[in-house]
Amino acid sequence: MIRAVLAVAALGIALLPVPIARDRRVVPAYDAVWLWAGVKEQPALGAARRLYLLQGQVEATDPVRYVAQRAAIPHLGNRDVWMVVRVETLAWSPAIYDQLLAALERWRAGGNRVVGVQIDFDARTRHLEEYAAFLRGLRARLPRDCRLGITGLLDWSANGDPQGLDALAGVVDEAVLQIYQGRHVIPGYQAYLAKLDRLRLPFRIGLLQGGEWQPTPGLEANPYFRGYVTFLVNPLGSRSGE
Predict the structure, then answer these.
(1) Strand-pair partners of 181
(2) Quick check: is 82 in a domain?
(3) pLDDT-wise least confident of 56-65, 130-139, 155-164, 215-224
(4) Is 62 inside any structural domain?
(5) Does a structural domain hold residue 240?
(6) CA torsion angle 67 51 175 206 (round to 10)
(7) Which residues pair with 120 in a beta bridge?
(8) CATH number at residue 84
(9) What domain count does the chain have?
(10) How far is the C-alpha of 146 from the C-alpha of 81, rounded, in Å?
């Protein structure tokens, strides 16, 4: 725990014990979490062994630009870190790739165990092959020891083109499928989860902190299931963003 306190000190986080949820309709223990810009300190960070930390955003401006979302280099110590990039467009210039790679190098040079880059992009379900082609090009530019992850839509499991899903499986190391939009859990999410056997790539389930969660039968027995990632939010009424 001493290491954990030192690891997140640069973020100004107060680390306290986090109770494991007993009610299966709420979020499980915070083993892995997303931390977005503007989210305030909270105890959940002290329990997380895997952090998905927003670093930058690729904005669909003219020209397309890469905007850092975290000015200071974090110092997160002995835990796995995924550097997250929120993406609005896939029309990247060489300069966008260069900025992402430079940020990755800086984070690693700061002593962080950055194990991967996660792309947070709302890829359309019917165009997954095009998305896979973009990701293949990005992967070729990443260091060989850097994994590549993505966020995904629940709709992929039900309506994703089989060829597109297979193409993703050959490129990414994991996909995190989100059961929420904004501050709300998607109604009927269990119907989508029941069709996850169509996926042939490692996946996690993205949960909303404080949101409903009821696992479907057989989920944890799925050979591609890797666990959960919880999206941390500020309490209702907070003025900071999620």
Answers:
(1) 184
(2) yes
(3) 155-164
(4) yes
(5) no
(6) -100
(7) 86
(8) 3.20.20
(9) 1
(10) 11
